[in-house]
Specification:
Elements (H helix, E strand, L loop, with lengths): L1 H27 L1 E6 L3 H15 L3 E6 L1 H9 L6 E3 L4 H8 L8 E6 L1 E5 L8 H6 L6 E4 L5 H12 L3 H4 L3 E4 L2 H9 L5 E5 L1 H6 L6 E4 L8 E7 L7 H10 L2 H9 L6
C-alpha cells in the first residue's frame, strides 16, 4: 500500500511539473493582435515563424478599431497588425508603440457569393430584386467595410442599397454571413477565397481598386514589447521575404 501511495505521489508530482512546464512555455508565447482578415494567413505565418525560430505566437483577432481600443486600455499585446494605417498611426502618436508604423501588405477587396451568379455588373445586380441582403464590415472599425462603403458610394448606389446592408463587426463575421447564406452577397478580402476554396463553392469578382482607398495594412511594435527580443524577431519576420511570399500566396499585394 505504501509503495502504491508513493508511486501515486510521484505521478502527481510529475503531472504538476509537466503542467508548470506547459504553462511556462505558454507564458513565453508572443501576444500578437491581428486584424480579422489575417486569420487564414496568420496560421501559416505562425507555423513558419515557429519552425524558423522556435518562438510561439498567440494571435488574437478582431476588428482593427476594437483591437486598437484594447491596446489603449492596457491589453498586453506585443505586436499589432492592423488592416489599415490609421489605427497604428494613432497608437504611435499616443505613445503606445515603440516605432512608427510600417506597411506589411495591401489588401484586395472583392464582392462574392456562394451562389452561381454573374458579378460583372454588380452595381446593377445589387439594386435588383435578386439581392435582398448585402454584407459589409462595420466601416467605423473594419477597414474592409470602409472600403466597401466607398465602392458602393462611388458606384452611386449606396443610398439605394443601404436598407439591404447587413453590418458585420469584423470581416470574419461578414464571411460567416456569406458562407451560411445569411446574405446573398458580401464584400470581403481576396484572402477569403484561399481560406474556403476546398470548403465552399464561391463566385467572386475583384472590386475596381480605383473605387476605394488603398487598403494599406500597417504594423507596430507595441510598448509592451519594449524588452522582448522575440517580439522584435517576429516584427522583422513579417517584413521578411519568406513572410511576403506567404502574404502574396493569400492574395495580398506586397512590396
Amino acid at each position: 500500500m505504501k509503495k502504491l501511495f508513493k508511486r501515486f505521489k510521484i505521478n502527481c508530482l510529475l503531472l504538476v511539473g509537466l503542467f508548470l512546464l506547459h504553462t511556462g512555455t505558454e507564458a513565453q508565447n508572443l501576444k500578437v493582435a491581428i486584424a480579422a482578415n489575417l486569420q487564414p494567413v496568420m496560421k501559416v505565418l505562425q507555423k513558419d515563424f515557429k519552425q524558423k525560430t522556435g518562438i510561439g505566437v498567440d494571435a488574437i483577432s478582431g476588428p482593427s478599431g476594437n483591437l486598437a481600443t484594447q491596446i489603449q486600455n492596457g491589453a498586453p499585446f506585443d505586436v499589432f497588425l492592423s488592416a489599415d494605417t490609421k489605427f497604428p498611426v494613432n497608437l504611435y502618436k499616443s505613445g503606445y508603440a515603440l516605432k512608427a508604423p510600417v506597411l506589411y501588405a495591401e489588401g484586395v477587396l472583392i464582392i462574392c457569393s456562394t451562389k452561381k451568379i454573374d458579378l460583372k455588373n454588380w452595381p446593377e445586380l445589387l439594386t435588383s430584386n435578386k439581392v435582398e441582403k448585402i454584407a459589409i464590415g462595420n466601416p467605423s472599425i473594419a477597414p474592409y467595410g470602409k472600403a466597401a462603403e466607398q465602392a458602393l458610394k462611388k458606384a452611386g448606389i449606396y443610398d439605394q442599397v443601404k436598407p439591404k446592408i447587413v453590418l458585420g463587426e469584423s470581416i470574419t463575421q461578414v464571411n460567416t454571413y456569406i458562407t451560411t447564406g445569411t446574405v446573398q452577397i458580401g464584400f470581403t478580402t481576396l484572402a477569403f477565397t484561399n481560406e474556403v476554396k476546398n470548403k465552399f463553392p464561391l463566385t467572386y469578382a475583384l472590386v475596381d481598386p480605383n473605387t476605394y482607398s488603398s487598403i494599406q495594412q500597417a504594423m507596430v511594435l507595441l510598448k509592451h514589447a519594449e524588452h522582448n527580443a522575440n517580439a522584435e524577431k517576429f516584427y522583422q519576420y513579417i517584413l521578411s521575404a519568406p513572410a511576403k511570399k506567404i502574404f502574396k500566396a493569400f492574395g495580398y499585394h506586397v512590396q
